[in-house]
Amino acid sequence: MSQCVECGAVLSVPICCDHCGAIFDPQPGTDHFSLLGFPRAYALDEERLAQNFRRLTAKVHPDRHSQRSEEVQARATRLTADLNRAYAVLSDGVRRADYLLELTGGPTAAEERGVPGDLLAEVMEVREALEQARGVGDRRTIERLRQANESKRRQTLDEIAALASGVETASVRQRRRLRLLLNALRYFENLTTELV
Amino acid sequence: MKRDGDIIVGIDLGTTNSLVAFADAAGPRLIAGGGGEDDVIVPSFVRFEADGRTIVGKGARDHAVEYPLETVYSIKRLMGRGTAELAEEARRLPYRVEKLSEAEERDVAAIVAGGRMWTPPQVSALILAELKRRAEAHFGCEVTKAVITVPAHFDDAQRQATRDAGEIAGLEVVRIVNEPTAAALAYGLDRSASATIAVYDFGGGTFDISLLRVEGGVFEVLAVDGDTHLGGDDLDRTLIDLFSREIREQSGQDIDSPVIRQQLRSLAEAVKVRLSEEDRTSVEIAVGGSFTYRRQVTKAELEALIAPFVDRTLEACRRALKAARRSASEVAEVVLVGGSTRIPLVRRAVGELFGRRPYTALNPEHVVALGAAVQASILAGRRQDLLLLDVTPLSLGIETLGGAVGKLIGANTRVPCKAVETFTTFQDGQTAVKINVLQGERELAADCRSLGRFELRGIPPMPAGIPKVEVTFLIDANGILNVSAREVRSGVEASIQIVPSHGLTREEVRRMQHEAIEHAREDMSAHHLIDVRATVEFDLNKAERMIREYGVLLAPADRASLSEAAAALRALARESSDARLINEHREAFNRRLTPLAEKALTAALKA
């Protein structure tokens, strides 16, 4: 743990001092997890994450430093932007998994654009069935399709969570699988908006 | 005047009304004008007189019908906008809207009044200056800092324009705060229980819905939605359109004159207000010739006319709930803000949507200014127990190849927030890159609002595609965009030239600020001139009475020359506009009068 350059107190998070209230730019390479005082892992206590976020925001927010120099105010704005970004990513399970995968070596979304094997064919089938059902006003079939899509989406989310939890020690094949599943979510979400 | 840097006032710069407030240890309070404790509202009206003087507030509003071409209102609807998008709006306004002539590459709307062009920030600055004066009279010292509120849905250009208005008026705008957020702050000040609340803000020109989570003094905005062009003005227009159509049909006259337009506007507003209390009301307007238009309007009729607008506000509420991932039943309280929420139909509709009776204990026209004052006290460091966490209302993006939008920051992202994007060159040795920055939710650049064209300069010459210019887009706590850039390979800080699409440049704002100071000085001398002339008139009346009654005590020649001097002073006061000169002559005349005054006094004592 590093020390506060202003008062020498031990820092619990890299951006502000609990003791004297000074705020610091984080070291280059500080990730979202350490910014919010968490170890780099998928499983986290969301309630505590929200608490940490609020506590830190209350310390670094520009409103708390509006009487300080312009330099400190600009830093406060930057830091709060960093906190907001980190919290937005970590508080969302999917974005957290995606971020963790990238952080631990990928593949990133740009490196691997594929989706699991038969997904595209399945989506096409659903669309055809939807069109048919719409044509004859078959609400029950549409509702059945909607439920099936929702359950697939949930299954995918569960598998993402399972893979992301072990991502640090995952094999190349498992890491690729995680990326394919993350890419697949968009298709389920698009169908959700169509199936109404 | 002495200066007190600690004073930060809160200002609600509204479409129809503006207010100023200040919060001390006892809480926020509105600052009243000279008309007594209840004189807290400055109507957002400005009249431009032919002699260059401006009249702000009630005096301008109350005579809007007599001076339709000279009276400017609803200027907020023009803030940060271009003439192309205001074409429809401008046709309905009695005053003229034109493209600011000196802004060649940009489309900045301006109005024409008092024989010259005024940009909306300049007109708003006149209103702000009036509020500043009130605050200064209240504190007995100069006030130079303010928190100013804007509709949550205002885009970057509209926020910039508001900040420019403050600067022109001589106010440092320490923070732009969203109106519903300010209202929530005033509402939640004394409440500690954690809850999700909705602020439904239906004002004169804009509509906002904000959902917030309030807990332990932290006011966290979850989502906002709304429409910057939907307000009481639009409701009035449905009535104006109805009346004008019927007048045309019944009288066979074309009645579209500025006077009639302004008369109809006042009438429509009055009808709307009366029908909030009563079930029916009658209107009467002499149109000219011998035709007088008379009609009954029922509440049901008005409600049918305005229902589509109310429906639009409910749509926005549903979108906001969806964005905040909340259901209507999870909302513990719905706070009503803005004059249009006095309309019974609005209250009913909001009550039905949220399944609860809206909270109306706060004065919907005061609450925003009070909240702004609370935020001002936070920024002054006097309140450490409260904190506002707001969001950006619109997505931010850049134009990509083919006119598409590359989204950088999504709507409802907490501010401050930032995004970093890397750009490169397409030609060998290219040293500049142009970026079109956009705001809006549409997928094509042409359908979004361009904030401006940013030109990165000073990129070291390298083969095409080699430079990596890292551009940081940072939206600050005001919801205003700041852009910085750096060439990664060389570490060179690239400079950014910004051409705002609908805004003023820094130089223009500075120039307008100087003009405003100059104008205030002229205005002051104009006021001064009126005072001096009145004093001259008073002194002359007194002197002439004295000459009439006691003139016999003087030699005939002295008497004649004194009468001549009086006539000369009267002529000078009428013809000259130099207050100092007139005053000097007035004093000289009074000195010449002294012998007679003494004789008169002696005579009066003897008698």
In CATH, the architecture of the largest domain in chain A is Orthogonal Bundle
**Overall outline of chain A:** elongated
Question: Roughly what percent helix of chain B?
Answer: 25-40%
The tally of helices of chain A reads 7
Low-pLDDT windows of residues of chain B: none
**Spatial separation of the terminal alpha carbons of chain A:** 53 Å
Q: Summarize the helix and strand pattern of chain A as letters.
A: HHHHHHH
Regarding CATH, which class of the largest domain in chain A? Mainly Alpha
Mean pLDDT of chain B: 90
What top-tier CATH class of the largest domain in chain B fits best? Alpha Beta
Largest interface: A-B, 18 and 20 residues
Q: How many strands in all of chain A?
A: 0
Structural class of chain A: mainly alpha
User: Roughly what fraction of the amino acids of chain B lie in strands?
Assistant: 25-35%
CATH architecture of the largest domain in chain B: 2-Layer Sandwich
List keywords for this structure.
heterodimer; A: 196 residues; mainly alpha; Helix Hairpins; 2 domains; elongated; B: 607 residues; alpha+beta; Nucleotidyltransferase, domain 5; Actin, Chain A, domain 4; Substrate Binding Domain Of DNAk, Chain A, domain 1; eight-stranded antiparallel β-sheet; six-stranded mixed β-sheet
Descriptive account of the structure:
The complex is a heterodimer of chains A (196) and B (607). Chain A has helices at 32-35, 46-60, 70-90, 93-103, 119-136, 139-165, 172-194. Chain A is mainly alpha-helical. Chain A folds into two domains: 1-91, DnaJ domain (Helix Hairpins); 119-194. In chain A, helix 2 (46-60) packs antiparallel against helix 3 and helix 4 (93-103) packs parallel to helix 6 (139-165). The N and C termini of chain A lie far apart (53 Å). Chain B has four domains: 8-230 and 307-389, ATPase, nucleotide binding domain (Nucleotidyltransferase, domain 5, 2-Layer Sandwich); 232-306, Actin, Chain A, domain 4 (Alpha-Beta Complex), CATH 3.90.640; 394-503, Substrate Binding Domain Of DNAk, Chain A, domain 1; 508-606, Substrate Binding Domain Of Dnak, Chain:A, Domain 2, CATH 1.20.1270. An eight-stranded antiparallel β-sheet of chain B has the order 22-21-25-26-29-28-27-24, with no helix packed on it. In chain B, strands 1, 2, 3, 4, 11 and 12 form a six-stranded mixed β-sheet that branches. By secondary structure, chain B is an alpha+beta fold. In chain B, a hairpin with a 4-residue loop joins strand 13 (195-202) and strand 14. In chain B, helix 8 packs parallel to helix 9. The chains are: A mainly alpha (196), B alpha+beta (607). Chains A and B meet through helix 2 and helix 3 of A and strand 19 and strand 23 of B.
